[in-house]
Amino acid sequence: MAPITESVRIRNFYEDNYYADGILMENEYKSIIPFFVKLCSDKAAYEVKLQRKIYFKMDCLKELFEATGQYELVVYTPHITIIKSCRGAEVTFSKDGRILIKKALDKREAEAIAEDVLQIALEASTK
Asked: Which sign, positive or negative, has the C-alpha torsion 83, 86, 87, 88?
């Protein structure tokens, strides 16, 4: 687990359960995956780091985001999918589980976008 810092957000998703060290997501299998967002070394994007390794089924990911109507599909290949949020940010998903967020105003917005897209993307993940 990553060390807890000032930037860690704590969320209460259930009455008696508090989770630290990122935002916690729940996929269809009721698995909770903590994550954190950090600025990439080139400072051009934010990287979403999941604490558990996952892989995305890209065709399923594409279908899920198209079905929401809230995201525009920018690029789709068998290896990467790029979507554009209604906020204007671009989110890149790699088949190997990496997630980058570009054009977010700040870290707080990147975290909010990550929370939104992970709720959908985890349905297209494999362990």
From this structure: positive
